[in-house]
Structure formats: structure tokens, C-alpha cells
């Protein structure tokens, strides 16, 4: 049928890394919703990881989100932002450099695990989505974006607007604020400190990731421009001298 073909084509065209993240973020919540596995086994709980060695919780907490009449809307919003902004990073700022994108996701995930243990955060989907959203919004900070009800503002404000929106509808923005914090840590260490303040790059993509996910030449999207470096050109430009493209308006052609 045409509808099934359209869905299949849409799914096939999702970029590889975003597709894996999106797929797991659908499968695991469905498993929990159908009670195939007790959802309690998916939560990030320090005692279960540290003393019972249930290591899988480090991953399942990233992809799982409880689905019920009270959380269904929030889950769909998470999927939308995950899909939209992960694609924009994968095909824009990290176009042709899958290893660097994977490293960003791993860095945010591991940082969220630490924060989650400290602050007793059991689900990491929302803060992970916010960390990715924050990075995109900082790279494209002056791009005009649209939110609900047709409101428009610069991208730099979107994570904060999203956090306030969730405080209004859920009574809490803790997960969003944690995601913003983690996204800011990554952005500061990779972009702001070495490029804007002239410091040396404190973290970088491990070489083994380049072996498994080699960079390719000829990227076409170029969505986003990191902060301009204040360092002399002969000291390097970060990310192996990649020439960044220009930003675009969200939803533009």
C-alpha cells in the first residue's frame, strides 16, 4: 500500500545514528507499555547497578520512557525533538563526521549517568534530548525558530522555553535543566573554551571511533556555525580544520 511505502521510505531516509537512537526510543517504551518486561528493570537505579551488576540499566534508562495517559504527550514531544534536532546535528554540524557525533552522544550519556546517580534521576531520555537540543541551539543561536502557537524567537532561547513549557504542563523542569547543563558542558569544552577563549581542547573524539566510523568528504548540509576562534589561524581551528557552513532558518528550504 502507498501509506506503508511512504512510512518505509521515510524510515529508510533517517540518518544512521539518529535512526538507531529513534528506533530504540520507540521499541523500549513499547516493551514496557506492553508489559513484556517489567519497566522497573529499565530504570537507572544506583543500588541495582552497583550491587547487583545490572549494567544494562545504564543503556535502557536512556531509551525508556513510561507511556500512560499522563505521560503520552511528553513522550511524543521527546520523540519529535529527538528526531528533529538529532537529524539537524547529524546532517549539519557533524555531516560527514559520524565519529564526532557519536562521541558527543556518548559524552552526554556518560555525564547524564553521573548526574543521574547523584540526583536520583531514573530516566535519561528527556535530559539526553535536551542536551542535543542545547548544542544545536548554541551552534545556531541566532536562527529564528518556531515553538507552539506560532511563537518565534532565537534558537538560543529554545531550551529554556522548552523547560518552562514543561514546568507549566508537568509541574517540573528538572530533567530539562539537567539536559541543558550537560549540553552546556559539552559545548563549553569542545567549542567555547578552545575557540572563543583560546584555550586548548580538553576533550576529543577517541581515535578508535574514527576507525569504526571514518569521516567522509563532501558533506552538503553545513547547518550551523560554531563560535569563531580567537586563536591565530596557524594554531588550528578545532575538529581537524573542518570548514563550517552557514546556518539556516528552522524549517527553511
Automatic annotation (TrEMBL):
It is found in: Endoplasmic reticulum membrane. It comes from the Eukaryota. The chain crosses the membrane at residues 20-46, 58-81, 101-123, 143-165, 177-193. Residues 223-253 are annotated as: Disordered. Pfam families: DER1. It is a multi-pass membrane protein. The keyword Endoplasmic reticulum applies. The keyword Repressor does not apply. One of its GO terms (biological process) is ERAD pathway. InterPro entries: DER1, Rhomboid-like_sf. Its main location: endoplasmic reticulum. GO terms for cellular component: endoplasmic reticulum membrane. Keywords: Endoplasmic reticulum, Membrane, Transmembrane, Transmembrane helix. Coiled coil: none annotated. GO terms for molecular function: signal recognition particle binding. Belongs to the derlin family. May be involved in the degradation of misfolded endoplasmic reticulum (ER) luminal proteins. PANTHER family: DER1-LIKE PROTEIN, DERLIN. This is Derlin. It comes from Trichoplax adhaerens (Trichoplax reptans). The lineage of its organism: Eukaryota, Metazoa, Placozoa, Uniplacotomia, Trichoplacea.
